[in-house]
Each structure stands twice: as C-alpha cells, then as structure tokens.
C-alpha cells in the first residue's frame, strides 16, 4: 500500500514516448535524522566493467524493502541477479512494513542499511535525511547488466523527482497508475457503466443497492485512498489552480470550489447509504477482499498495485479493470480521460551504509532487463525500465487496462507530492475515517484537512518546497 507526487507529459509507456513519473515519495518526518552526507565505510573493491562501483569481493549487502502491495519477491530476484554477477557476494533482503519507525534508530546510530525501499505510509521524509544519502547519478550513468547505459533504458522524467538541490538521491522504481477499479465481468453481467461524474455515481449507487451491493467501501489504514481520488477529481475539475494550491500548502486550499464540489459529491454518496459501513474498524486488505472476492461493493480507488496485493483474495473470473477517476462536471478543466500517475517505490542508498557500492549494485541489478521483466510479470505493474511488458500484459486485465488508461490520457497526466513530502497521511487518515463513516460533514472535513495543512505551513522547522 503506497499512496504517493507537478504534471509532466506522459504518453504510451509501452512505446516509450513521454511517461513522466512525477512523485517524491517522501513523507513521514524523522526528527532525529538530519545530518550531512558521508562516504562508504566498506573497504573498496576493484572498479571494472562488471563492477562499476568498486563493490568489495565477497561482501554482504543489507537491503531493507518495504513489504506492501508489490511484496518482496521481486527484490529477492534482484538480489540473486546481483549475487550471480558479483561472485561470492551475499545480499540480505529484509522486509519491513514501517520504514521510518524501524530504521530511525539505525540512522541515528550511524548504521543504516546499504539500500532502502523508502515506501509505504510510514516512509522516511526525504527532507529529514537527504544530506545523508548518496548521489545516484553514477547508477544511471553506469551500464546495465546487458551492456547499455541505464539512463538510456528508462522512461523520461524519472530522475527529476528524486533530485533535491541538484543532487539525485532517490530512484523511484515503479510506475503507478491510479484509477477507479472494478470487475468488468460484474459490470458486464449487470449492464453497468463506470460513472464519469459524481452525479452519475449516485445513479450507479442506486442500481448497486438494488442488487444488494454497496458502491464503495474502505479499510481504516487506506481511508486516504479516497482523499487521493478526491484530489485527482478536483484537479481534473479545476486544473493547475487546485494542484498548485495544495502542493504549496496555501491558506484555504481545501476550500477551493472544485475541491468543495468533489467533497459534496462524496458526501451525497455517503448520505445515500452507498458506502459500506464499518470501514473505520476494518483492516484494509480485509476490506479490499470484500470488494475483490465477496463483491460486497463494486468500486475501489487505488493504485495499480491492487491486483498483486489482492491476488490471493480475488474471485475467479473477476476481471479487474481500471477507469479514470470522475470529474464533477462534463466541462472540467482537464478531460475525464486525464490520469493521475506517478513513479513510486523510492530507493535510497545511505552514505553511512557499510557497503555503499553494494547498495548501488543492487539498484543496477534491479534495473537490469531480467529483473524489470520479472517485476512486471509477477506484480502486474511496470517499472521505469522501458520495453518490459508485452501487449497481453502477461494475461492481466488490470495491467492491460493501465496501458489503455495511459494511452487514453495522452499528455493529460498529472501528480502531486505534498502529502508524502510533508508526512501528512497519518493525521489525514483520522479525518477521512471519520468522514467516510458518516460522522462528519463537508465543513468538518475541510477544516480538519486545512488545520493539518496550516500547521505544516506555519512550522518553521519544516523545510518547504515551492512547486510552480
């Protein structure tokens, strides 16, 4: 589960035209970790064509990987790729679900892992540790395991989001398409179509209710998936004015007309009884199973990781398919086909790691063709490496639909990063759980979100990033 975010052009990621991944997964403040950079503490090895970073012979690499919707099998695969090339080396892959909480003591103690997948709701705020991270330019300028310069194999726009003050410190590995997910087979059987506006949501909600089903549902840890959908819907309705106001933590940003219209539309759905109750007390994967396996509700907003995350709890014949998030009106600033898409799973290499060269080599292994294809095939999601997904999406209806969504969006692709950059998600979860269960109105939701935003904007200890 990774909710992650400046709009750039993005077009057809299978053909490798523009597909910009504009995300800085960087939320969750890590107060005791501010400091300067350093250098590798491990003995150096010999720099060769097959060992571009000088990884020491028979050394061990400590990799900590966020265990979320993509699992960690792909990291284990990359570890074996690295071990095969760097004979005698050992890559220890450790899964964690709360990166900041787990790794804070190690950063403070000067003993961080060699490479980290800094992802999830509990990720480390990049602002708090970026001085302690290696510049990863050498990674993308190195040749991959197939002999091609890595940066020439990547989609456009994947380096800039991880670059701060001219230093490239975070490699975002996975392309994520955010969508409104549904079972195409269920919709076909009932003659339903996916709503394009919030008014149409009410119409479908009534039809679903007649079949004994809810329109939406949620789990407590993923309540802000509905915030993600709401922001995307508001940006499509109101354009850059909305995106920039939120990104720059503007006073009154949650009261903009487009945002309020979306909140009002969502409140009508809740008040009509089309939101499955009890989500605030339900674990998020259990709630998602109620959608993908039990079909108790029929629409779910999420990133493209949802298929892999629920592959063991999805009903046979459930043709998981993504649709664009709704607009408010048919005259929105961006078309209905506009898409929220980013690159996520942000990888970092701490300068104080015992084996910095090994950490960089792990990233080189991940960016190899074999590892990238394995990721796509096993998780039904695309990495930032081009040319790794066949037209049939490895048999995944969800992956095929993501390709169609990107093709349909053309250059109308957008994203944002303020939630993760400033670590707002934990506080926002409380506000959204209350709203989704019908215990607050639009005014209370707006005030709660604005209070969180204002507190961050007025905190002089938080370094702000201005987005233009």
Please identify the structural class as seen in this structure: alpha/beta
Radius of gyration: 22 Å
Q: Give the DSSP E fraction (strand runs of 2 or more residues).
A: 5-15%
Determine the N-to-C terminus distance: 28 Å
Structure description:
Helix 1 crosses helix 12 (356-366) and helix 7 (225-238) crosses helix 8. This protein is an alpha/beta fold. It has helices at residues 73-85, 99-108, 126-129, 137-141, 184-190, 198-210, 225-238, 240-247, 257-271, 284-292, 306-309, 356-366, 369-379, 397-409, 418-421, 425-436, 442-457; strands at residues 60-66, 90-96, 115-118, 163-164, 167-168, 171-183, 300-303, 320-323, 339-348, 382-383, 413-414. It is globular and about 70 Å long. The strands form two sheets. Strands 1, 2, 3, 6, 7, 8, 9, 10 and 11 form a nine-stranded mixed sheet that branches.
Spell out the blueprint of helices and strands.
Elements: E1 60-66, H1 73-85, E2 90-96, H2 99-108, E3 115-118, H3 126-129, H4 137-141, E4 163-164, E5 167-168, E6 171-183, H5 184-190, H6 198-210, H7 225-238, H8 240-247, H9 257-271, H10 284-292, E7 300-303, H11 306-309, E8 320-323, E9 339-348, H12 356-366, H13 369-379, E10 382-383, H14 397-409, E11 413-414, H15 418-421, H16 425-436, H17 442-457
Parallel strand pairs: 1-2, 1-3, 9-11
Antiparallel strand pairs: 3-9, 4-5, 6-7, 6-8, 6-9, 6-10
